[in-house]
């Protein structure tokens, strides 16, 4: 027993030493990555159906949400709901890690560089927008692979590979999809649809943080540190941001699978052309196809993401945002340190 206790103490001391040695940005990367991976896996079945609604309109919209679940379960089994989830998690972990970390870093940089800007929601709008754009640029190829794998319909073992539509590639996995996409169109192929991704993420990420911070300002002081309150505010903010930018997500998905869709019509070229084509040929409602499913997905995803992120920040002993700003302040700003400190003390630190 004593040996086990000593071993546990040594492991605890080792963990404490590792945590203390980690810089703040590394702790934020770890916390954000775990939060994103867990949240994405929980909502993966809804994500799969949403992508099929966006890209296989005739096959799945006609049978509805529950019919789509039944069709996937019947033809592909339980694992069919997680088709493309490996690529999705492989993307979301670095994406969420970069998004959270970049947001914190941009926020600190803006505060130190432009101290007169203030701490209102505009700060979070700008920092969130740039953080979202940064994360997208680094992880878009993984998002494209995830979409292609989720778009692919493969029959169960009882059926055979003939159930795959003609003229479609059969991707065996993430590496195979990467390889075939690169051979077909090179680096440009891996970044197909990145334009609408950026158009969408800049306002979405910015608005999400904007609404979140603005709603928190109306929360009574005694409830500001409540995880439940943060989750509710974050969920509503995510829903509002998603509603405003969702059409660009549909455009992005259709551009990513354009080589499959092109076999049935003219090739899709650019963002604006795709947006106009969808509105004219498929109707403006198609631009919001899958939005109701996305609402069901966003609420638990944001809730789980915020909860895990907060828990991980606590476990990793990440300092409060304003404390981190003070630690990151260069030595040559000490002459104005008093005014900075006054601003920090007057600002909301319950984040």
UniProtKB/TrEMBL annotation:
It comes from Carya illinoinensis (Pecan). Keywords: Membrane, Mitochondrion, Mitochondrion inner membrane, Repeat, Transmembrane, Transmembrane helix, Transport. Required for the accumulation of coenzyme A in the mitochondrial matrix. It is found in: Mitochondrion inner membrane. Belongs to the mitochondrial carrier (TC 2.A.29) family. PANTHER family: SOLUTE CARRIER FAMILY 25. It is a multi-pass membrane protein. This is Uncharacterized protein.
């Amino acid at each position: 027993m004593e040996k086990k206790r000593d071993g546990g103490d040594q492991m605890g001391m080792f963990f404490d030493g590792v945590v203390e040695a980690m810089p703040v940005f590394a702790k934020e990367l770890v916390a954000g990555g775990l939060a994103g991976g867990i949240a994405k896996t929980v909502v993966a079945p809804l994500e799969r159906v949403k992508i099929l609604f966006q890209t296989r309109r005739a096959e799945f919209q006609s049978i509805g949400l529950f019919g789509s679940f039944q069709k996937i379960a019947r033809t592909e089994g339980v694992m069919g709901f997680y088709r493309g989830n490996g690529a999705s998690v492989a993307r979301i972990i670095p994406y969420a890690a970069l998004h959270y970390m970049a947001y914190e870093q941009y926020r600190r940089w803006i505060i130190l560089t432009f101290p007169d800007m203030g701490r209102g929601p505009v700060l979070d709008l700008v920092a969130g927008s740039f953080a979202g754009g940064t994360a997208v640029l680094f992880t878009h190829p993984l998002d494209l692979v995830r979409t292609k794998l989720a778009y692919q319909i493969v029959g169960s073992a009882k059926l055979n590979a003939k159930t795959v539509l003609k003229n479609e590639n059969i991707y065996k996995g993430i590496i195979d999809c990467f390889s075939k996409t690169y051979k077909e169109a090179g680096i440009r192929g891996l970044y197909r649809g990145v334009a609408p991704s950026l158009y969408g993420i800049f306002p979405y990420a910015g608005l999400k943080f904007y609404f979140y911070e603005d709603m928190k300002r109306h929360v009574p002081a005694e409830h500001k540190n409540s995880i439940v309150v943060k989750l509710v505010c974050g969920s509503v903010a995510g829903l509002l941001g998603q509603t405003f930018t969702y059409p660009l997500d549909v455009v992005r998905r259709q551009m990513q699978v354009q080589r499959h869709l092109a076999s049935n019509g003219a090739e899709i070229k650019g963002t604006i052309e795709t947006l106009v084509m969808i509105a004219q040929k498929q109707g403006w409602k198609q631009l919001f196809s899958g939005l109701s499913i996305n609402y069901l997905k966003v609420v638990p995803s944001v809730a789980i993401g915020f909860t895990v992120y907060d828990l991980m920040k606590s476990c990793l002993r990440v300092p409060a945002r304003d404390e981190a700003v003070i630690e990151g302040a260069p030595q040559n700003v000490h002459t104005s340190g008093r005014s900075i400190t006054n601003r920090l003390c007057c600002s909301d630190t319950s984040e």
